[in-house]
Specification:
GO molecular function: catalytic activity
Largest sheet: 2 strands, parallel
Number of strands: 4
Low-confidence stretches: none
CATH superfamily: Winged helix-like DNA-binding domain superfamily/Winged helix DNA-binding domain
Keywords: DNA damage
Oligomer: single chain
Pfam families: DNA_binding_1
Organism: Paractinoplanes rishiriensis
Distance between the termini: 17 Å
Protein name: Methylated-DNA-[protein]-cysteine S-methyltransferase DNA binding domain-containing protein
Length: 94
DNA sequence: GCCCTGACAGCAT
DNA sequence: TATGCTGCCAGGG
């Protein structure tokens, strides 16, 4: 779990990572799914890291925090596609 | 141990 | 891209 948060902290400005990518980067993959666990972890302990740099594969941000995330991403210079993140250009892999 | 739920992903439509 | 369905897995009741 710490590793997830640690990795999120390493995400550079203007870049983002998808839940799946994080799970994958940490080899948390148990088939294809730790993405869910990553999401859960972020939901409960993401309050100390740049959580707005973590989005799902569609570039969508977490329910209830869209606005906030949008602002921060904008401030970070992340390429946005309307209300979503332009994954193609903002996706980052360690 | 069973069932439901969820900041998810991949594939088909 | 939107919607629907199916895997997959940890947590909680």
């Amino acid at each position: 779990m710490e590793e997830v948060l640690a990795l999120v902290e390493r995400i550079p400005e203007g870049k983002v990572m998808s839940y799946g990518a994080i799970a994958d980067a940490l080899a948390d993959r148990s088939g294809r799914n730790s993405a869910r666990q990553v999401g859960t972890i972020m939901a409960r302990h993401g309050g100390g890291v740049p959580w707005h740099r973590v989005v799902n594969s569609a570039g969508r941000m977490p329910p209830g925090h869209e606005q906030e995330a949008r602002q921060r991403l904008l401030a970070d210079g992340v390429p946005l596609k309307g209300d979503r993140v332009d994954i193609a250009r903002a996706h980052w892999m360690p």
